[in-house]
From TrEMBL:
Keywords: DNA-binding, Transcription, Transcription regulation
Domain Cyclic nucleotide-binding: start-end pairs: 17-77
GO cellular component annotations of the record: cytosol
Listed name of the protein: Crp/Fnr family transcriptional regulator
GO molecular function: DNA binding; DNA-binding transcription factor activity
Organism: Kushneria marisflavi
């Protein structure tokens, strides 16, 4: 989490130590295990220290909608800070390490550091912006643009904590997960990947994604990464 936060703000050593207090008591979850379920009491958050996870909502007809994809360093449950119940279920995509912490620990961080407080709120805003982009994807972009936009977004998020151009990265989501995220069927997802490959935009080998020309893919999907970035780094101590 510290590396993730340092992308957004220049942290003092004591603020790094304060953040580290939220990543105590690591908990191991296997792929498919739930961190918490929709409707359970929301009195804690968690830091995803290792692995990938997702949040989802099950509709009345039993179909699933995936809302968020979480990567290492992400704070899970931040949007539910002021709520009594979890609004979605969080499951592990891969084997994961989570560090749970009660809301009162975050209150302690807020009391001690204005810079960390503003960074937490900024990250919460970015998470909300990703949901807005997901709504635009579902409502206004065609299937090819949806998938291409998501791949650009994923690459951009990974680049915050990884060095290099990241024209290749691992995407450990099943075809069904991608379908539930995009509002498509698994067969349609497969067809879209085939179409993007034919256009030399994206190559997929199992869970490995290769983007030969990121600028071209961003233009194709109308991806603009401003919604993933803070306006400026906080300098307040």
């Amino acid at each position: 989490m510290v590396k993730h936060f340092q992308y957004f703000a220049d942290l003092a050593d004591w603020e790094v130590e304060l953040l580290n207090t939220l990543e105590k008591s690591p908990e191991q979850l296997k792929s498919g295990d739930s961190l918490w379920r929709e409707g359970e009491r929301a009195d804690e958050m968690a830091v995803l220290s290792k692995g990938w996870a997702y949040s989802s909502y099950v509709l009345e007809d039993g179909s699933r909608m995936i809302l968020d994809i979480f990567m290492p360093g992400d704070v899970v449950g931040l949007r539910e800070y002021a709520l009594h119940e979890h609004q979605s279920t969080v499951d592990a995509i891969t084997d994961c390490t989570f560090c749970r912490f009660p809301h009162c620990h975050l209150d302690n961080v807020f009391e001690q550091s204005g810079r960390l407080t503003s960074t937490f709120f900024a990250i919460s805003g970015i998470q909300q912006s990703m949901l807005v982009e997901r709504m635009v994807n579902l409502g206004r972009r065609n299937a090819q643009n949806r998938l291409a936009h998501f791949l650009c977004e994923t690459r951009s998020r990974l680049s915050k904590t990884n060095s290099g151009a990241l024209n290749e990265f691992r995407l450990p989501l099943s075809q069904q997960m991608l379908a539930d995220l995009m509002g498509l069927t698994p067969v349609h997802v497969s067809r879209v990947f085939s179409s993007l490959r034919e256009q030399s935009l994206v190559y997929r080998d199992r869970h490995q994604i290769t983007i030969p020309d990121i600028d071209r893919l961003q233009m194709f999907s109308d991806f603009r990464e401003g919604y993933l970035r803070m306006q400026s780094k906080s300098k307040e101590v």
